[in-house]
Amino acid sequence: LTASGGGNYNWGGGNTTTTKAVSLPGTYTVTVTDAVTGCTATAASVISQNIIPPTAAVAPTSGTLTCTTTSITLTASGGGIYNWGGGNTTATNSVIIPNTYTVTVTDNCGTIATGSVVCNVTPMPTANAGGNASTCSNTSYTLSGSSTTNNSSVSWSTNGTGSFGATVNTLHATYTPSALDISNGSVLLTLTAFGNSPCGSVQSSMTLTIIPFPTVSAGANASVCAFTPVYTLSGSSVSNNSSVSWSTNGTGSFGGTGNTLHATYTPSALDISNGSVLLTLTAFGNSPCGSAQSS
What does the DSSP assignment read for 14-64? Predict the structure, then answer.
């Protein structure tokens, strides 16, 4: 505050200069005295204070980071000094990860206000068709090792000609190989996971190897003389197998040939008395196939 009018000035409190610095609201009075006549006059100044706190706002008020919207620029308003933390004291803040972001606004009086915004994220889908596997040609295969995340739906496809049937849009679908698939020996099965909007889709594939089921023929029915009863099973045949084994419903013996394709059978006295026996050839398939029999 600056007084004028000449003479001697008195603001009170020992201040007899023409100026007075004030930092609080109030009415400030100065007395001016004429140095010659001693006459006095007074003048006053009313100082008020604006104590309205600052406001703080952030736009947009919320946001979602997606597969296509990888960053969002947040803008603070309210005047004063901005502080987002991390050394950012500008009015804007560009964010790339989901979180709650808060800005502090400080006015010249040191009064503080805050504003916040929550940014979410729509993650990209993931898909895993599972590891490569094998199945037997006489069975369907259930894709139990598959998994997905962050997806709205799934679909299976094949580079072969087999079928998923009604399970094509389920995570653990079941695939039935076709004759051509079996002939080719393997197929590529692909899992597609469709993301939540606006994310797209991802794919994962696995190879299904198709192992042929074993075939077996014990040979045609035959006869042998009771006086020379040893019989060699020369008409037997197998394919797609790892091993074989012969068995009988009688009490005769294959000797050491029971695990050979063309085994030799020696009937027992009881077999001869009964007049016949049933000889069965079992062909054990290659894993994961089972066994097949013929008699």
Answer: TB-SSB----S-EEEEEEEE-TTT--EEEEEEEE----PPP--EEESSEEE
For residue 276, give every residue at least 6 positions away whose Cβ sits within 8 Å of its Cβ, in sequence order, or none. Answer: none
How confident is the model over 21-48, as a mean pLDDT?
90
Of 8-12, 20-24, 173-177, give the range with the top mean pLDDT: 173-177
Q: Could you give the C-alpha distances from 140 to 50, 127, 133, 184, 210, in angstroms and in order?
A: 81, 22, 12, 16, 10
CA dist., res. 148 & res. 281, Å (int): 46
* pLDDT of 79 above 80: no
Whether residue 56 contacts residue 76, with contact meaning beta carbons closer than 8 Å, is answered with yes
d(C-alpha 159, C-alpha 169), whole Å: 17
Is the confidence at residue 233, as pLDDT, over 70?
Answer: yes
Residue 68 identity: T
Are 199 and 275 in contact, with CB atoms under 8 Å apart?
no
